[in-house]
Amino acid sequence: MRYLGVALGQSIALGTCAAFGTLFPALFAGKDLLHGEGLMLLTGVSITLAGIAVIGYAGSLRSRHMTEEEKRAAVKDFALTKGLLVALLAGVMSACFALGLDAGTPIKEAALAGGVEALYAGLPVIFLVTLGGFLTNACYCIQQHIRNKTGKEFFSVKGNVLLNNVLFCALAGVLWYSQFFGLEMGKSFLTGSPVLLAFSWSILMSLNVTFSNVWGILLKEWKGAGTPTIAVLIAGLLILISSIVVVAMVQQ
């Protein structure tokens, strides 16, 4: 987001995360992606990637037709190449979250066997996966504070700055966690469709990309990009959403 903005940065990172997060569990489970349900899953992911590619092209058009001043006004540290590399890396690594959820299936099954409702059976798995994420991030942040000697900044702020930061961080955490809460609850309604169940991760990420671009437009990150560029962006979003529709229709 620092180098590409909310819209383009989230699109590339989450699109990559959607594709790899959907395919990784299937590949590790030994599924055949060239026939039957595996092929349907691969088709859906391919459409998702096509949508992301079009959105990425919109980003390159924006970069090409905007002056340096306009780029800086929309995204202060705009840098297309560096931003793409970071976003792709973030997307691939974030896809490992899906592997964690898939590896927690035995826990979910044990919860169901113990009488827990299907809507809530996946919550222990989310807790364990996010706990691992918290530990790695906390260790890295502490290490950086020690290295840069910035820990004292937590206690040197004046007024309500620290309180506001804590509250907004907590709000961000709740909202971020809610998507996985919704994912696990949604999965309970897809148990009759193995392909849609496997594609649920891609659905979540596609919705994330869609709403991040809506926010990007509201935050005027695409201001000055021109009507043709916005048209390409919208086309990419429509392709992205169509991946969900296509998989759902094939399952009917």
Tally of individual helices:
11
| Spatial extent as radius of gyration | 20 Å
Tell how many strands the DSSP assignment holds.
0
Mean pLDDT comes to 81
**Percentage of residues assigned to helices:** over 70%
SSE string, helices as H and strands as E:
HHHHHHHHHHH
Strand content: under 5%
Low-confidence stretches: none
Assembly form of the protein: single chain
Large-scale geometry: globular
Features:
globular, 11 helices, mainly alpha, 252 residues, 79% helix
Q: What do these coordinates show?
A:
The protein is 79% helix and 0% strand. With 252 residues, it is mainly alpha-helical.
Outline the fold blueprint.
Elements: H1 5-28, H2 36-65, H3 68-74, H4 80-94, H5 96-103, H6 105-113, H7 123-148, H8 153-156, H9 161-187, H10 194-218, H11 227-251
In short:
It contains 11 helices and no strands.
